[in-house]
Write a structure and sequence with these properties.
alpha/beta, Rossmann fold, Beta-Lactamase, Alpha-Beta Plaits, 4 domains, six-stranded mixed β-sheet, elongated, disordered N terminus, binds ligand C2E, binds magnesium ion
Length: 747
């Protein structure tokens, strides 16, 4: 230690201010000596003195064994004044070895005192055991004793502080790591209290106040208790002003407004600076402490504050990320997840209010986006969101669940077509231009039919889909029947998609014969789906689903390729003049790539186009007759034949027929079926046959099951027939011998 300081002290050691010593714990000093006089003189020599503002408390031991007993009981002794020779010559040295070794008291300072200089231990021993000083008893005058003790105590204090800091820092590091992993602000804040208390060895009685902007960055700052422990636990979630204890209120208010740590004899209040102070995020922690903190502890708290403020920023970040999960970032509205959660919460607390969910979807939004750009689209959505928000519909929740789909959930008095339709009556002003907006709406009541938020949202989406199918500006309510049908369709679609991917779809072939010669002329290709459990799903069920979903495009292309392969096989067997009729959905025809797909399939198969016929139905009329006509011309110009399937059942009239360049007209089997008894079927067939002929088409009758039907049709001049009377649809392996046999030598 520095000599100057020793010199300075030596003058008058008794000047240390005694008053200050009262507040702090005295230094504990153990005097070990077998000579009672030494105890007495030491006590006398140190009487009334204090060191570093703290009094001295002497503990007396009269043997080495006695000393060890005391040390085991009282570990926080600062200095041991130790006699070398007691029960044995080296009793003192043995005690030192026990203190440093067995007891592990490394900070405690040791001053050896000997009767005579000859009893001094080796230098090596002094170093090894970290002995602070070595004096002969005669050397230790009152002043010398005081200075020696002062040096030892300062050194002890230094070591103890370093130890505390090290432990404290270790705790902070562990805590910080924990806090980063913890996502909840409350868990974090509770940790702060425990940590503060732990660092300075006080009971965790305290609370943490944070501006609630930590959770919602843009709200005006209001400080609330986010964690509270011990006797203060009941203050959770209260605003500062609502805390009854004026002392705590004053401490927190001062700490937060002066933005600094405060300490009094009763408490510590720490200020934590948020990383982004402009947006709030500051917080304060108040902890009761029975006595004022030592400077070393305050220093520790300072380090703690800096560290923890960083952790708080992380926690804030995690919270904001969570916010992103619930808030639509573009419009700042609750998103789909938030809506579902809100409905779930409402379902749990049934209060008898009739609630509904409404979905509003902007008609032709994609087109608007394409035409005017995304910025314009965003402006439009924002304007719609504003107007819906301005509705102030009770405590309804407004959310954005998809690009152009808004949701309103709450009291059915607000959530209904009348109220919401009115919102869209006036045009919206976008970039200074008035723009009318049409929307489709779907509604579902929050009743027993929906057991969860997701369920209700799904049902409402079904209603919305219904509304959209009905046309622009329409709305629809969900009903259980609609729900069942829609779910069935969805199930069917998934099954079909899977079957297609797994190559569980296959084709069968049904011959078409000349009614005049009885010879096979063509073969219709029909799609089959056998499910994994061996059930057949009729095409009448799954084709419409495939059409609605667009899956028919891929499936149809596969059917065409596979049919052309079959045609190559027929040709390889020498069967060259059989026409293959493939059903084509109007959804496929409407595809811009349809002709390219057709050319590609034909090109790859090497089959001449004249061996292919495409069966289309009257439903192609929805594409617009101009387009259909020009497409059929394109097809025919390639040498491919066209048949009009299911003729007579379509909703359209016969008037367009002369504009369709078709080769064959297929009378629907419904008419053929009702022909026998001379009912209306026969009359319709009688009309269709000459009509087809007048337009230059051949006429084929579908679903011929009896000889009588065949005879009637033949009598009407019908050219061809297809039906169970001749053959059921069959796999290619059966078709080949069937054809070979029928064609006989006439191949
Ligand atoms: P479609 O084109 O009118 O096919 C004729 C349907 O009548 C076939 O039913 C066939 O099995 C059935 N049929 C044939 N002869 C008789 C008979 O004597 N009596 C009775 N009761 N029925 C007979 P299937 O195979 O169930 O096909 C139903 C419809 O599914 C087809 O009607 C067609 O519109 C559609 N379809 C089948 N395969 C495909 C395909 O590959 N693509 C497309 N787009 N549609 C297909
Ligand atoms: Mg057909
Ligand atoms: Mg048909």
């Amino acid at each position: 230690m520095d000599e100057d300081f020793l010199e300075f002290i030596e003058g008058d050691p008794a000047v240390a201010p005694a008053a200050a010593a009262t507040a702090r714990e005295p230094w504990r000093i153990l005097v070990v000596d077998d000579d009672p006089d030494v105890h007495e003189s030491t006590a006398f020599g140190l009487r009334g003195l204090d060191i570093e503002g703290r009094a001295l408390h002497l503990i007396h031991a009269h043997s080495a064994a006695d000393a060890l007993d005391v040390l085991r009981r009282e570990p926080d002794i600062a200095v041991v004044l130790l006699d070398v020779v007691m029960e044995t010559d080296n009793a003192g040295l043995a005690t030192i070895s026990a203190i440093r070794g067995e007891l592990g008291l490394l900070n405690m300072r040791i001053i050896l005192r000997t009767g005579q200089p000859g009893q001094a231990p080796e230098m090596d021993t002094i170093r090894r055991y970290d002995i602070n000083d070595y004096k002969t008893k005669s050397e230790l005058t009152r002043t010398k004793l005081y200075t020696t003790l002062t040096t030892a105590i300062r050194s002890y204090d230094q070591l103890a502080r370093m130890d505390a800091s090290r432990q404290g820092l270790e705790k902070i590091v562990t805590a910080s790591n924990q806090f980063i992993a913890e996502s909840g602000l409350q868990t974090f804040a509770e940790g702060v209290i425990t940590q503060m208390a732990g660092l300075v060895g006080i009971a965790p009685e305290g609370l943490v106040c944070a501006s609630d902007t930590l959770a919602a960055p843009d709200a005006p700052p209001r400080y609330v208790v986010i964690a509270a422990a011990g006797q203060l636990a009941h203050l959770m979630q209260r605003g500062i002003a609502e805390i009854e204890d004026p002392y705590i209120v004053a401490s927190l208010t001062q700490c937060l407004s002066e933005r600094r740590n405060l300490q009094t004899a009763h408490s510590v209040t720490l200020f934590f600076q948020g990383r982004d102070s402009g947006k709030g995020g500051n917080f304060a922690a108040f902890v009761y402490s029975a006595a004022a903190l030592r400077p070393v502890d305050m220093h520790l708290m300072q380090v703690f504050c800096t560290n923890i403020a960083l952790c708080a920023a992380n926690v804030g970040l995690v919270n904001r990320l969570r916010g992103h999960a619930f808030v639509d970032q573009m419009l700042g509205l609750p998103n789909r997840t938030a809506l579902v959660q809100c409905i779930d919460d409402t379902l749990r607390s049934s209060d008898g209010v009739a609630r509904a969910l409404g979905l509003m979807d902007v008609d032709q939004f994609a087109e608007t986006n394409d035409m005017f750009g995304h910025v314009y689209g965003d402006l439009l959505l924002a304007a719609i969101a504003r107007r819906l928000a301005d509705l102030h519909a009770g405590d309804c929740l407004l959310a954005r669940v998809a690009g152009d789909t808004f949701a309103l959930f709450g009291d059915a008095a607000w959530v209904n077509p009348d109220v919401l339709r009115a919102v869209f009556e006036q045009p919206f002003e976008i970039e200074g231009v008035q723009r009318p907006v049409s929307i489709c709406m779907g509604f579902a009541y929050c009743d027993a039919s929906s057991t969860s938020g997701l369920d209700l949202l799904k049902n409402t989406s079904i209603a919305l889909k219904r509304a959209k199918e009905a046309g622009q500006g329409r709305s629809a309510y969900y009903s259980a029947e609609v729900g069942v049908a829609t779910r069935e369709r969805t199930r069917l679609l998934h099954g079909l998609q899977h079957a297609f991917d797994q190559q569980h779809l296959f084709l069968v072939y049904q011959p078409q014969l000349s009614l005049r010669t009885g010879l096979p002329m063509g073969v219709e290709v029909l799609l089959r789906w056998r499910t994994e459990d061996g059930r057949f799903v009729p095409p009448d069920h799954f084709i419409p689903v495939a059409e609605q979903s667009g899956l028919i495009v891929a499936i149809g292309a596969w059917v065409l390729r596979t049919a052309l392969q079959a045609q190559s096989q027929l040709r390889a067997q020498g069967i060259t003049h059989i026409r293959l009729a493939v059903n084509v959905s109007s959804v496929q025809l409407a595809q811009p790539q349809f002709l390219a797909m057709l050319d590609d399939a034909l090109g790859h198969s090497g089959v001449p186009p004249s061996c292919l016929e495409l069966e289309i139905t009257e439903s192609v009329a929805v594409m617009g007759m101009e387009r259909v006509a020009s497409l059929l011309h394109e097809i025919k110009s390639r040498g491919i034949a066209v048949a009009i399937d299911d003729f007579g059942t379509g909703f359209s009239s016969l008037s367009y027929l002369d504009r369709l360049p078709a080769d064959r007209l297929k009378i629907d089997r419904a008419f053929v079926n009702s022909m026998d008894s001379g009912r209306s079927g026969a009359r319709i067939a009688e009309m269709i046959v000459p009509l087809g002929h007048q337009l230059g088409m051949l006429v084929l009758a579908e679903g011929v099951e009896t000889e009588a039907q065949a005879a009637l049709l033949r009598g009407m001049g019908c050219d061809e027939a297809q039906g169970y009377l001749y053959a059921k649809p069959m796999p290619l392996e059966q078709l080949l011998p069937w054809l070979a046999q029928r064609l006989g030598g006439g191949v």
